[in-house]
Amino acid sequence: MRTALRILLPAALIAALIGLWQIAASAGWIADALNLEPFLVPSPAEVGDALWSSRSLLLENAWVTLREILVGLAAGVVVGIALSIVMRFSTLLRDAVYPLTVALQAVPIVVIAPILVIWFGYGIWPKVIVVALAVFFPITVTTLDGLRSVDPEAVKMMRTLDASRWAIFRRVEAPTALPSFFSGAKVAVAVAPIVALFAELAGSNSGLMRLIVEDNNNFHEARVFASAVILALIGVILVGLTALAQRLVVSWR
Amino acid sequence: MSVAARGLSHSYGDLLSLRRIDLAAADGEVVALVGPSGCGKSTLLEIVCGLREPSAGEVVVGGAADAAGRLAHCAYMPQRDLLLPWFSALDNAALALRNRGAGKAAARAEAGALFERFGLAGFEAARPGELSGGMRQRVAFLRTLVAGKPVLALDEPFASLDAISRAEMQEWLAGALRTDSRTVLLVSHDIEEALYLADRVVVLSARPGGIVTELSAPHPRAEDRDRAVTDPAFVAVRERALLALREGAR
Question: What is the CATH number of domain A44-249?
Answer without folding.
Answer: 1.10.3720.10
